[in-house]
Amino acid sequence: MSEFIIPLITLISLELILGIDNIIFISILTDKLPPEQRNKLRYMGLGLAVVFRLILLAGIAWILKLDQTLFTIINIDISGKGIILILGGLFLIWKSTKEIYHKTELANNPEKAKTLNGNFRKLLLEIIILDLVFSIDSIITAVGMVKELWIMYVAVIVSVVIMLIASKPISEFIQKHPSFKILALSFLIMIGIALLGEGLHFEIPKGYIYFSMAFSFIVNFIQVKTHTMPNNELAK
């Protein structure tokens, strides 16, 4: 039994770690909608994430072919997966940089910032693009870890259910604290660079990336808590 349980738990954990990117991106975009539409976009975005992953698992033979070299540029082999990761990374860097600009430079110009808010369909399309990129990366990683297809299906479904439960409180926390919003966008830029590097066969160990994210989050969390404490508490 342990030969199935351990790979399943490991794969669920990995899917959740990779799913953090999705949750952060969706949380940032839902903030651009009226409150009554945010849950709908959040659930549709994560729902599409699981649909994409299950469809890609069904076409696992095609997914594996994406790792095959299509052409070579400056001694760098470019595969189908590489093209998707490069385009996805560039899109994530562009989108995150644009959002940081809107939330800082236009912060004192609410009228102009309001005109830049996306409509539901546009934001959903952006989520679909990133869902596809993250799904392909996630499935190829899963294939390298386990061989049984049913374990991959269970891991994907369980991880997305957990993400659905966690997405609302995470989204509300990011919306409540502007500094975390900018930090989350900076995380997405870093993830975009990592995707770009992976597409060009210059992989940055994911452990470094997520450790940096965790450390930055803890530092910012301490700062927020410190500034919200009463003066008499700080004096102690």
Automatic annotation (TrEMBL):
PANTHER family linked: MEMBRANE BOUND PREDICTED REDOX MODULATOR (PTHR30238), SLL1022 PROTEIN (PTHR30238:SF4)
Membrane protein topology class: Multi-pass membrane protein
Localization, UniProt: Membrane
Protein name (database record): TerC family protein
Keywords linked to the UniProt accession: Membrane, Transmembrane, Transmembrane helix
One Pfam entry name: TerC
Family: Belongs to the TerC family.
Source domain of life: Bacteria
Taxonomic classification: Bacteria, Pseudomonadati, Bacteroidota, Flavobacteriia, Flavobacteriales
Principal location class: membrane
Transmembrane segments: 6-29, 41-64, 70-94, 123-144, 150-170, 182-202, 208-224
InterPro entries: Integral_membrane_TerC
GO cellular component entries: membrane
